[in-house]
Amino acid sequence: MSQFNQPLGGNEMPRFAGPGTFMRLPAADTAKxxxxxxxxxxxxxxxxxxxxxxxxxxxxxxxxxxLRPYNMATGAAPFDRIQVADIGDxxxxxxxxxxxxxxxxxxxxxILGHGTIPLTIGGxxxxxxxxxxxxxxxxxxxxxxHVDAHAxxxxxxxxxxxxxxxxxxxxxxDGILQTDKVFQIGLRGTGYGxxxxxxxxxxxxxVVQAEECWHKSLVPLMQDVRAQIGDTPVYLSYDIxxxxxxFAPGTGxxxxxxxxxxxxxxxxxxxxxxxxxGCDLVEVSPPWDPSGHTAMVAAxxxxxxxxxxxxxxxx
Length: 315
Known about the structure:
This protein has helices at residues 56-63, 97-113, 128-139, 167-173, 195-203, 219-229, 261-269, 293-307; strands at residues 36-41, 84-89, 117-122, 142-147, 177-187, 206-209, 234-239, 276-282. With 315 residues, the chain is an alpha/beta fold. Helix 5 links the parallel strand 5 and strand 6. Helix 1 (56-63) crosses helix 8, helix 2 (97-113) packs parallel to helix 3 (128-139) and helix 3 (128-139) packs parallel to helix 4 (167-173). The longest helix has 17 residues, at 97-113. It is globular and about 55 Å long.
């Protein structure tokens, strides 16, 4: 009998039945005693165009039933090495975005206070700002790997300072990022001017636009990322719209010319060996993909994130 929680297997219970947790893991009320946890932030009132990401956590959990515990590609067996559970969703205020942000920060300080690494199922990208504030409260300013179609460094959106397009501008202003160790990968599309990406560069971020990734393996890129970050505590924020809409149509602000699923795997698997202190997968909007394909991709990437956490990646 394993000392660690195990996901419920498809030969023990039909995949269309059983608990609604991520990978049908045991549920927990808090992060106490856990090395890592899955946690949902079902929120979309920070979005600026198509809503629906409030349904992302439930959809990703639903699609996770097909995942099995052993990673055939990397050899990682996370449930043999660390204690993992699903701690449910953050009880946000669905009518007040600013209050929701405060609630998220408080909840994540509690999770981190137990020494647990959170794997977050979003939710729109607003959620990363309060999570980063909690991360910096525990670890100090962190490095960041941000995979996205958009830089999310707007100063304001409709006169508001907090929204899904502003988190990394706010994080820089708060001094919670090590700006020379921030990597934005997959940026693309139209903009209002060069500053949409150049502001990031002026802060010291490394910006890798999607066009630089076309027709390439991203293994060499991730080698460079690991070398530059070293053992600095690092947070991984993955916006599903970094992928081309051919792979992930179910999101609020789609852009053509994006990353492929195999490049996404190379990025996440390329984080093995880093001092990851938390990860998120955001902007899955199930109403825009009734097939569930986008949520399925998201569930797989979240599992891959679990497989590269400290103490999990194969020696």
